[in-house]
Amino acid sequence: MTLIKSISGIRGTIGGEVSENLTPIDAVKFASAYGAWIKKQRNKSDYKVVVGRDARISGEMIQNLVMNTLVGMGIHVVDLGLSTTPTVEVAVPMEHADGGIILTASHNPKEWNALKLLNAKGEFLNGEEGAKILKLAESTDLLFADVDSLGNITKNDAYIDIHIDEVLALDLVNVDAIEKANFKVVVDGVNSTGGIAIPLLLERLGVEAVKLYCEPNGHFPHNPEPLKEHLTDLSQAVVKEHADFGIVVDPDVDRLAFMDENGDMFGEEYTLVACADYVLSKTPGNTVSNMSSTRALRDITEHHGGNYEASAVGEVNVVELMKKNNAVIGGEGNGGIIYPELHYGRDALVGVALFLSLLAEKKMNVSTLRASYPNYFMSKKKIALTPGLDVDAILKTMEAKYSHEKVTTIDGVKIDLSDSWVHLRKSNTEPIIRVYTEASTQENADTLADKIIEEINSVSGVK
């Protein structure tokens, strides 16, 4: 079906033909290339890589292939087993490791899996580093270890608890206020590792957690992307349980969305807005999100006297700009919170703790909090790619068509209109063109998206 090699890692569907899907041979090939890249970073006697996975059905198979490939290259492995993406990111520097691999396809359906690759800081590789690994994957000169130099595997299942310890130790996480608030929350863990980590975090914070789909068996009960149309069960449970709000994460727990006490979406774009509002109120500074994220973060940042800038889509791009601008918080509008006080990676656990601290201190319900923020509406649509579709030519045509507007081309084509915007880009994780729009009403956002899609179809010949 599909194998995608990008800045977001090596992602594909399980089974099928070699080099066309994520088969065992492909998993070994890319793990070998990553191991060779690790060894090129520093010349030393012992190398170590941290490996963890979400609860996908294929996860154990892929993880065993990856770990034993690294062992065959003479690299020691710390096996976290079932874990989360941010937990592996936290573990890498704690283990003084040379890198890390997370086996997860994030929000993709169960037939997908992926190798997400980290450097020695526990951060995603940049484009240049990723290109080197892709080149190594096609090489026949990879060197494996002799029998006396094989690596070993050490299991460590404590890191989710350690990760939670680190979150609770943050100065801005107001544990006392959260405990006194007596919150009740419904958690949708989409039957992956969020069903382990989020309830454990809530328990430590004195929050009553009602578990929904928190069995980490990899059988996703709904589309795992945390969007409104996939979350009717959570909405009903929040109302039925008279909960203060609902929490949903994606399978590897780096995306976070909330549902208010009425069972209505808080808006995944507003996860970052709310957490930034809290952080900026305590530590004024700058923020960064990607170009497909809501303008509301800019408004909140400027309200607190800070400076907002937008990066290209992709966590590594957000992190790079955050470091450059000394941002105190940042992330992506898909519910990804990056709080540098802990680490430079999207982290739903940090997001939950900051959001709870905000609610506890403001002493207001979630719907009232949402109403206090600038109101923008987004439409997120897509166009499936076909073999004959020339995406670059389409984007060039759209850029020329809207040249009289403010157009940015660092990542696809972003067109800023006076009261709205549209962002067109080829996805890093799926064979699609993403069409994101934002406007003052949902109807206007949807109408703008449909208009752009119609224009793209007319220039591409797609019906």
Automatic annotation (TrEMBL):
The cofactors required by this protein are: Mg(2+)
Which segments cross the bilayer?
A: none
Which residue range or ranges hold the Alpha-D-phosphohexomutase C-terminal domain?
A: 395-454
Q: Report which superkingdom the organism of origin falls in.
A: Bacteria
Which keywords belong to this entry?
Answer: Isomerase, Magnesium, Metal-binding, Phosphoprotein
One Pfam family, short name: PGM_PMM_II
Boundaries of every Alpha-D-phosphohexomutase alpha/beta/alpha domain copy: 8-140, 172-263, 270-375
Task: List the Gene3D superfamilies hit by this protein, alphabetically.
Answer: Alpha-D-Glucose-1,6-Bisphosphate, subunit A, domain 3, Alpha-D-phosphohexomutase, C-terminal domain
The entry sums up its family as follows:
Belongs to the phosphohexose mutase family.
In its UniProt entry, what is this protein called? Phosphoglucosamine mutase
- The species this protein was found in: Corallibacter vietnamensis
